User: What shape does this take?
Amino acid sequence: MTVGTKKGIIKDFAVDILFDIAAAILYAVSVNMFTAPNQIAPGGVTGLATILNYLLGVPIGITTFLINVPLVILGLIFLGKAFTLKTLKTVVFFSLFVDLLNPILQPYTRDHLLASLFGGILMGAALGLVFLRGSTTGGTDILGRLIQLPMPHVQIGKLIMLTDGLILLLSTIVYHNIETAMYGVIVIFLDGKVIDTILYGYDTGKQLMVISDSNEEIGRRVMGELERGATFFQARGAYSNEEKDVLMCIVKRNQFGKVKKIIKEIDPDAFVIVTEAGEVIGDGFKSIDKK
Assistant: This one.
């Protein structure tokens, strides 16, 4: 291993540590100030630890760590050392900061809705920073990967949704209040949205597939007025057997209304398919160097 390679590894590790610390602080604020004091169990291992804290008085951080221990051991055996050790590092920081900051953070309990909103945003920001560095917080992520080994057809996203749903149901039973599950849904929803924003940025857009006899004019106006590129595909109608050009273009969300207006002005009878472009890389959007 060269000196340059060693320096690169040390630098990456240092950046990972900084991200873990920043994320752990945000996570601790979310749990100690907003979710746990308002009896909101935000799914996953943290949600389960929050419920156990309510029932038994055990610290949320150390409970989260203890729940993750068997999963981390299985991860070491079946998922590989590099991924699992990186996850263990993050789990340690998160568990440590949740309990260390608990005595000094003032719980906010005046408005459960505000608590769920801020709790979800901060939690999503914390997890987004972790995922950005290729790590995880263990729990259902490791469990999902382990289940996928013998059953690769199982989708991790659906497994996490099922787990979160069970935790929310359990919280309703434990807290004797259905509203706690409803606030939990808000936390989980915002959590996911913030994670997506951090990982994929704001460079999302709309993809349009336009079938029209006036596609050339539509394409010219899209390029001229919106400064967006357009591509033509040759297609043949299954019923009419006629060949036509299909125009494809990707625009930012705030340009979508203008594109619809252009199409309506040129050909109100155009057939338009609109889909979400979750992430767009290239000229006018995000540079691939920023990935």
Observations:
- DSSP finds ten helices and four strands in the chain.
